[in-house]
Amino acid sequence: MSRTLSPSCKQCRREGIKLMLKGFRCYTAKCAMERQGHNNPPGVHAWRRGKSSEYAVRLREKQKVKRYYGVFDKQFMIYFRMAERSKGNTATNLLTLLERRLDNVVCKLGFAPANKSARQLIIHGHIYVNGRKLDRPGYLVQVGDKITVKPSEKSAKLVKSYIELDPNRPVQGWLESDRTKLEGIVKALPTRDDVQIPIEEQLIVELCSR
């Protein structure tokens, strides 16, 4: 599995927003974006940088989305081509496709503190979809899919330890989560309103359509 080795907090600082890459820690005062003097973009004399070009502005939006959902450029362009071929607005289609990724769903059900942790759970075989083990974080969930934790003491203990970090974490309306039984159901497909970070998705379409 390919992975990003850049420090998570540095990625948030570069994009200028919380990407929630460290889960519950991002809600605390330990988050770099909350600390004065630590929330500047990385690099020497970042505060001296001039105005960004139109290309740079569009690239930053694309990078923000890629980092939030944990996908690389080749994967991202596959989703973009799928969004183009689908009916409706391409920008909205792109974001809803990314929201349907299994790692994002596992995180939003509260079974993992962040998408990175959710990917690890899936790849290590701790997550089942419709009763079968699925080790592909990029699987796109469908309405009616049932996500459960592997019926083993080790898997249950691991997921419960994650749930205890933030037991009152709210679940979005398109999902239903039973944290006692360690299972969740996809009740509907996500909409644009379910995306939790500020994104100007039309800028991404303008960049990728070149």
What does this structure look like?
The protein is of the alpha+beta class and 210 residues long. The chain has 2 domains: 103 residues, Ribosomal protein S4/S9, N-terminal domain (Ribosomal Protein S4 Delta 41, Chain A, domain 1, Orthogonal Bundle), CATH 1.10.1050; 89 residues, RNA-binding S4 domain (Structural Genomics Hypothetical 15.5 Kd Protein In mrcA-pckA Intergenic Region, Chain A, Roll). It contains 8 helices and 5 strands; from the N terminus they run H-H-H-H-H-H-E-E-E-H-E-E-H. A 5-stranded antiparallel β-sheet has the order 2-1-3-5-4. The longest helix is centred in the N-terminal third of the chain and has 16 residues. The model has no long low-confidence stretch (mean pLDDT 85).
List the defining traits of the structure above.
210 residues; alpha+beta; Structural Genomics Hypothetical 15.5 Kd Protein In mrcA-pckA Intergenic Region, Chain A; 2 domains; 5-stranded antiparallel β-sheet; 8 helices; globular
